[in-house]
Design brief:
Order of helices and strands: HHEEEEEEEEEEEEEEHEE
Structural class: mainly beta
CATH class: Mainly Beta
Helix content: 10-25%
CATH architecture: Beta Barrel
CATH superfamily: Inverse autotransporter, beta-domain
Distance between the termini: 31 Å
Length: 285
């Protein structure tokens, strides 16, 4: 691992020199490319900015705009609050978001909660559709769905820069069947500013899907213990980095489904009276 460690150290030093010349708000901008097995890539820009930042708490805004090559553009804007407890070893958070998808006008709100430590975390989100049926084209119409997801995440043993996540999600179909499934993902931060996340989504109604996401951010607010492990050879002497301070992670992004899951059916004007709807599962982070 020595060659990799040296490369990581050189990359970190170069990034640090560049970061010192940039304003803090710019360091919190993240660019993502999402490449799924269906061959339709999506791209997004996200930022997390503090509104009120105290030693043991923070109020923040998380905003995102994403474009998919299927013609959908999704905007997300959220407000969150996080509190450090247990001598800054545990971080508790709540958040609320509004999502809007163009050009169809789908609207959704969500409410979430999170419990995070340096080696384990639990995230949950409840989604509420705020819009009805919208014309997708001359034949089909779509509607946003209510739903929820619960996710457990954990650091991989001896690799604090690598995390695994398991998520269960459910969406309440109104004109069609409900949709329930599992999402398994692996997140890697090989260098301070670069992140990869890939995984597999399986459902009871739609076809399974594999995905890979690549992200770049000028500053990840990375904990020092993660940087130290990567610089010294990428493998920690401890199985799990438990008991570390969460102060450096107060402004990491909320884990949620930013894309809107919808159901689609044939419009009555196109001969679809009584037809059951099919669910289009949103993908992406």
């Amino acid at each position: 691992f020595s060659t990799i460690a040296v490369a990581g150290s050189v990359s970190d030093m170069a990034d640090k020199d560049a970061q010192d010349k940039l304003p803090d708000w710019l360091k919190r901008i993240e660019v993502e490319g999402n490449f799924a097995a269906d061959g339709k890539p999506a791209y997004s820009v996200m930022t997390v900015q503090p509104i009120s930042d105290e030693e043991n708490s923070v109020i923040f805004n998380q905003s995102r705009v994403a474009y998919s090559t299927d013609g959908r553009t999704t905007a997300n804007i959220g407000l969150g609050y996080r509190q450090l407890t247990n001598n800054q070893k545990i971080m508790l958070g709540v958040n609320a978001f509004y999502d809007h998808q163009f050009p169809y006008g789908h609207q959704r709100s969500s409410y979430g909660a999170e419990v995070k430590s340096s080696a384990f975390e639990l995230n949950g989100n409840y989604y509420v559709a705020n819009s009805g049926w919208r014309d997708a084209d001359t034949i089909f119409e779509e509607r946003a769905l209510d739903g929820h997801d619960v996710e457990i995440g954990a650091q991989l043993p001896y690799l604090p820069w690598a995390w695994g996540f398991v998520q269960n999600f459910y969406y309440d179909g109104k004109a069609g069947d409900d949709l329930e499934g599992m999402k398994y993902s692996l997140r890697l931060r090989p260098f301070k500013n670069i992140e990869f996340e890939g995984g597999h989504t399986s459902t009871d109604e739609t076809s399974d899907n594999n995905f890979v996401m690549a992200r770049y951010r000028i500053g990840f607010n990375e904990p020092k213990y993660v940087s130290n492990v990567r610089k010294s050879g990428w493998v920690s002497s401890r199985a799990f980095e438990t008991g570390e301070s969460m102060a450096d992670r107060k402004l990491e992004k909320v884990r949620r489904s930013n894309e809107i899951t919808v159901e689609r059916r044939v419009k009555s004007s196109a001969g679809g009276t009584g037809a059951r709807a099919s669910v289009i599962l949103a993908r992406g982070s």
